[in-house]
Amino acid sequence: MPAWRAGSRLRRAPSILANRLAHLEQRNILLRTHDSGDRRKTGYRLTVDGPTLIPILVEIAAWSARTDPDTGAPVDWVALVDADKPAMIRLITATVREGGCIFVGDNNVLAELARGADAPSG
Q: What percent of the chain has pLDDT over 70?
């Protein structure tokens, strides 16, 4: 899986982020990597165990999207998760294993749904 690059849009103090990333690394959820061209750049990859957390994260994200009026989660995504959570978890897991994300980037779940990939039906 491609590495996730820390930093660009995060709004946490660097020490808090570093502590959280170290905790996830110690728990075998993330693997720290270094850019082959610039060893100062650090990235993170999910380990084999990392995607096992996706069902929990989907539950938390869906609950938050339903209860937080300021959520950034698209309404359509929340509706799809509510309509067929197991299918969405499978799609999210497959996308993440291929190096994609849920909402952003070239390979993301929302784009995949727009292309008609195994969209859950209500």
A: 85
Higher pLDDT, 1 or 43: 43
Two tokens, residue 61:
């994200």
pLDDT at residue 43 tops 50: yes
Confidence of residue 79 (pLDDT cuts 50, 70, 90): confident
Phi-psi sector, 7: left (phi>0), alpha (psi -120 to 50), beta: left
Residue 3: DSSP 8-state: P
Helix (H, G, I), strand (E, B) or coil at 94: helix
